[in-house]
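Q: Predict the bound structure with phosphoric acid mono(formamide)ester.
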Amino acid sequence: MKNRSLVSIDDLSTGEVIKILDLAAEFERDPVSRLLEGKVVATLFFEPSTRTRLSFESAINRLGGKIVGFTDAGVTSVSKGETLHDTIKMVSSYSDLIVMRHPIEGSARYASEISSVPVINAGDGANQHPTQTMLDLYSIRKTQGTLDNLNIFMVGDLKYGRTVHSLMMAMSRWNTTFNFISPEELKMPEEFKLYLENLGLRYYEHLDFTDIIAKADIIYMTRVQKERFSDPIEYEKVKNVYVLKNAMLANTKANMRILHPLPRVNEIHTDVDSNPKAYYFEQALNGVYTRQAILCSLLGIK
Ligand code: CP
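A: Predicted complex:
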């Protein structure tokens, strides 16, 4: 894995995914070590973030590394017209690894082709979010005891939600049954359904999930991605289509867990938060251990 970029979850073999999850479990047991001493990591956030940026920065700090970067491209020379090409060329000469979030799909792959150091995709538009997927896999394995043969419900914005695209591709390796719940306007894009069809995997599409909720092992709720809509009226129509409430969980499996990449808006009522099946805040914490493991793996640090 040394010196490779992580742009899509498919950049990692199944063996590499498992190795990173196992290493993350070691970091959960013992989070502080100085494995990144002397290393500089650049965090370039062209789009807002709370969890991804701060959990990466927490991971780097716990590992003794140093951080350079920005949270607003408006304070960089991008505002003077500098291209992504030149920005990456420069930053890769100042750092040992780049973590980048950018609104344009494909920007992370482009950056990885220019950069002389590994690039981690921290979300490129509606395309992919592979490090979120790694922490999702970690959370699923930890709560279910396995990644095999699970029934996963993905609910909400399956069109623009990059986390569901990456997670679907990853979980396709473990004989998952997928239930996609979304309004017509926000259905899982054809290219991702074709991805499953080519693997001979089952998926089912629904407009509602109250009648089938008892079958779920994981309910993966998502926010409707307001920032991807060009027409605000279209957003208003779909923004509150699904709201998970505590009363809906009465007949769910004892070991079912609710995940959400966060931030949430209205799609999970706060009355769910105290239900033991709510796992989204622990899931976000798992991002620190998982990102520690990803950083060490891509830098070839044992
Ligand atoms: N899950 C996630 O990507 O959250 P942030 O947008 O806060 O980084």
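A: The domain at 9-128+287-298 is CATH 3.40.50.1370 (Rossmann fold).
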